[in-house]
Amino acid sequence: MELNANIPSGPIEKAWETHRFEMKLVSPANKRRYTIIVVGSGLAGASAAATLGELGYNVLCFTYHDSPRRAHSIAAQGGINAAKNYQNDGDSVYRLFYDTVKGGDFRSREANVHRLAEISLNIIDQCVAQGVPFAREYGGLLDNRSFGGAQVSRTFYARGQTGQQLLLGAYQALERQIAAGSVQMFTRSEMLDVVVVDGQARGIVTRDLVTGEVHSYAADAVVLGTGGYSNVFYLSTNAKACNVTAIWRAYKRGAAMANPCFTQIHPTCIPVAGDYQSKLTLMSESLRNDGRVWVPKAKDETRRARDIPEAERDYFLERKYPSFGNLAPRDIASRSAKEVCDEGRGVGDTGQGVYLDFADAIGRLGEDTIRERYGNLFEIYERITDENPYQVPMRIYPAPHYTMGGLWVDYNLMSTIPGLHVIGEANFSDHGANRLGASALMQGLADGYFVLPYTIGHYLATAKPGPVDTSHAAFGEVEQEIAHRTRRLLEIRGKRTVDSIHQELGRIMWNHCGMSRTAAGLSQALERIPALRDEFWQNVTVPGGNEQLNQSLEKAGRLADFLEFAELMCRDALDRSESCGGHFREEHQTSDGEALRDDEHYAHVSVWEYRGPEAAPVLHSEPLTFDHVALAQRSYK
Amino acid sequence: MNLTLHVWRQAGPSEAGRLVTYDAPDVSPEMSFLEMLDVVNERLIERGQEPIAFDHDCREGICGSCSLVINGVPHGPRRGTATCQLHMRTFSDGDHIWIEPFRARAFPIVRDLIVDRSAFDRIIQTGGFIGVSTGSAPDANAIPIPKAVADRSMDAAACIGCGACVAACPNASAMLFTAAKISHLGLLPQGRPERTKRALAMVQRMDLEHFGGCTNYGECHTACPKEIPLETIALLNRDYLKASLVSRD
Ligand SMILES: Cc1cc2nc3c(=O)[nH]c(=O)nc-3n(C[C@H](O)[C@H](O)[C@H](O)COP(=O)(O)OP(=O)(O)OC[C@H]3O[C@@H](n4cnc5c(N)ncnc54)[C@H](O)[C@@H]3O)c2cc1C
Ligand code: FES
Fold it and tell me: Class of B117-247 per CATH?
């Protein structure tokens, strides 16, 4: 497999501009002759589909939701970064670039990250013009807050509903194109495979989730904006339906998978309450601006939080990281919380929790200011826990949240299958081994509004894909495979529900491939996952039939893919014998417990190639070079 | 606690539906309403029966997927709360709970508790946007917007498009949904140029989709999980009236 990242040569500040100039264009009259499939209508997919429609391409957009507005992006709370430097606090494109490379623990591509930082400026302009009601100061100008891993205020936000407002902006732009006839929208349609003809991605096959019908769609290029795979852990902050199917099936058709073990565990989530727990709820990281994280100094403390005197509290982030304090990056904050809980100092019934306390901030700023900043988050918390965070500290614990890994793409966002492009959380591109807060929304929109619409034109103008339609034999074959698989799932009629097996997979992954990992644990997981997969294919039960809306069948198909993907994730984690960002291998840590990278052996992207059901996947690597941000151990002390 | 559920089951849009009774034993007060349904469903599946189909995704009250009429009230008894955020501590041991789909002519039933709300997307298509294409925007701070105006716009923009307003309305009107979008965009300077055109087009579409007219019951606001203000409807009416006066066709 040949990996060419296609990074433009020349100075990094000019790379994107030069590249844009050098890319071939498709003339306006020719654009409507090209059909582009966009799978996904989250921030990445909706912004891409809308922009491609505006440019005049013929776009087909797919989502398994009943409306594009329901995509998981809607749930993002805290904000979106941009190097506007409106606060005059020393921010710049270069600083955002620097923070992101460093925050990612030197496992991302410098050129991609620089482009992202440049484009961040355009995104905010675009969103304001669309009517995104960002928070404002009394003077009428845009307000900013700060987020983990940064010492400047560069995060734009709309109360605690930033993702919702950004997605509605993109959704509305998309609906405008649907009305204009340039985008055709397919809702409640799940993509189940990519169709490759003569080495190029030429279409997809879907299942209509209402009727069960299998359909083929042909195109000149395919774009996946299908989100992340945190639900491999069963419990995560992701929406229930988020899954790995689209990128996993593409992987099995030849798209390489990059860094699958790079997952982010978010430090501020509401702790698990019971076995019936169906998902975990994030409390935006922005809360760490004003909340102080602590646990009792003593083990097995039984007093209520308010009764524990100041001197007997351990504000462990402030103690360990005096310069960043409660705003230490996510991986560090999560691991520190796990450490104090492992020591027996955790709080709440399960002991799996730490306090996030607003008493000081309320004393300093008043309850009204805190309500103004975080009112809706406090409400979410109160609804779930029945505790009032204005009066008692919140209890939080880390939970799986975001996946930095994904399909490998080059600088043009194209995978190793020519014509198959991947955007948003589904690709591996910009966050290295750890993503900074408020950077996923930025990346999704950068990819969809400002990068892909250019690079895909270049692909079409140079590859000149010939005429192919769904009567091509390749489509028929894929349809057959899908029908066969569905039949198999329905015929097992075993004893276990899909969810019970998913929960079991989640426990394996959380224990062995979660916040901290060891060679022994990963090897154990690599034995247990195939066994669980066999159990699934022999003993799962999926009631109902295919020709109907069947939610058990949908879940079963997704779990079948998670059960294969999980193995690759553990394999990747085992291979990467170093600690970096969210990937913490206990064997590799400094004397004070920080992640210890091994730049000599692992300053690369791990890229996995599928070689068939019986063969082991083959590992390739894309070396990473750091010409602008000097490789150094991250320090937030 | 032990509960008895009466749940609407309907195999498809043209099939007959009926209420079916299920026991829900050992429900923990800490569970969410949907987690309670998950547990009931797991038990059905273990017995080889088809689970109750319902829409849901984020389970944090923001995606607008969940619906359900619970004891006659869209999203159940707690104000400003979507079904997915409702917790079982709201109910008591021995309660009977009636669970039905959102009902409206414009929201045909797909299966069990799932309805088709795509009419909302079609309303947005006719004008629920600002006509600015990617790449043509001025600097974000070029037009200052008073905080109070931005806040009011945000109050309206908080709509999650769940359709509870329609389900609650005796006329099955989509007025609050439409008014929320018209207010969100119309209050901002960026949205002003298309204001009258937007109001006219969206209201027309609402009628075409068979939503009823608004006769000011206000039930929509009471049922709304985001408590979208009723004043948005006044804003819509003002824009619509102005549009009708200046419209030449
Ligand atoms: C609770 C929460 C809070 C967050 N807060 C922030 C924040 O404050 N700032 C920030 O920057 N980031 C935040 N993030 C991360 C960010 O929200 C996501 O990374 C980002 O929105 C992903 O966007 P996306 O477009 O790539 O994918 P998604 O929004 O997940 O969209 C995926 C789309 O693909 C479709 N799809 C997937 N598979 C298929 C298939 N097989 N067939 C058809 N359609 C398919 C789905 O229907 C959906 O439309 C948060 C994440 C969570 C979970
Ligand atoms: S499931 Fe998303 S709003 Fe209820």
Answer: mainly alpha
Cβ contacts of B160 on chain A, cutoff 8 Å = 164
How many CA atoms does the CB half-sphere of B128 hold within 13 Å?
31
The model scores a pTM over 0.95: yes
Number of domains chain A contains: 2
Which positions in chain B touch A239 (Cβ < 8 Å)?
57-59, 63
Domain ranges across chain B = 3-111, 117-247
Comparing A300 with B221, the larger pLDDT belongs to B221
Alpha helices in chain B (DSSP H): 33-46, 118-125, 147-157, 164-168, 175-186, 195-208, 219-223, 231-246
pLDDT per residue as tens digits for the range B93-117: 999 999 999 999 999 999 999 999 9
Instruction: Provide the domain limits for residue A351.
Output: 267-400
Q: How far apart are CA A93 and CA A635, in angstroms?
A: 21
pLDDT in tens, A139-189: 999 999 887 778 899 999 998 899 999 999 999 999 999 999 999 999 999
What CATH number does residue A545 fall under? 1.20.58.100
Average pLDDT of span B190-202:
96
Give A505 Cα–ligand 1 centroid separation in angstroms: 22
Separation of alpha carbons B78 and B174, rounded Å: 22
Q: How many CB atoms lie within 10 A of CB A311?
A: 6
Report domain B3-111's class.
alpha beta
Q: In whole angstroms, how large is the CA radius of gyration of chain A? A: 24
| Distance of alpha carbon B214 from alpha carbon B216, whole angstroms | 6
Give the end of a domain, one of A400, A420, A444.
A400
Q: What is the ipTM of this complex?
A: 0.98
Q: What whole-number percentage of chain A has pLDDT above 90? A: 91
Task: With beta carbons under 8 A apart, name residues in chain A contacting B34.
Answer: 278
The sign of the torsion formed by the CA atoms of A483, A484, A488, A491 equals positive
CATH classification of the domain holding A309: 3.90.700.10
Clarify whether residues A384 and A487 are in a common domain: no
A590, A605 in Cβ contact below 8 A?
no
The CA-CA-CA angle for residues A34, A37, A38, to 5°, reads: 130
**Structure tokens of A343?**
């020591």
- Per the CB < 8 A criterion, the answer to whether A152 and A293 are in contact is no
The predicted model gives A211-221 an average pLDDT of 98
pLDDT computed for residue A632 by the predictor = 85
**Do A477 and A396 fall into the same domain?**
no
Integer Cα distance of B118 and A312 in angstroms: 56
Rounded to the nearest angstrom, the minimum Cα separation between B11 and chain A is 8
Closest to B120 (Cα-Cα) out of B67, B39, B60, B178: B178
Residue of chain A nearest B54, judged by CA positions: A551
**Tens digits of residue pLDDT in B155-188:** 999 999 999 999 999 999 999 999 999 999 999 9
In a domain, A124, yes or no: no
pLDDT, residue B248, reads 61
Of the pLDDT bands very low, low, confident and very high (cuts 50, 70, 90), residue A243 is very high
Going edge to edge, which strands form the sheet with B69-70? B18-24, B3-9, B96-100, B69-70, B73-74
Proportion of chain B above pLDDT 70, given as a percent: 99
- With the most atoms of ligand 2 within 8 angstroms of its CB, the residue from B32, B33, B63, B226 to mutate is B63
- Same domain flag for A488 and A570: yes
3-state SS class at A36: strand
Q: What's residue B249's pLDDT?
A: 53
Q: B58-79: per-residue pLDDT in tens?
A: 999 999 999 999 999 999 999 9
Report angle CA A94, A99, A101 to the nearest 5 degrees.
95
Residue A234: phi and psi, rounded to 5, are 60, -65
With a 6 Å cutoff on the Cβ, whether B58 touches ligand 2 is yes
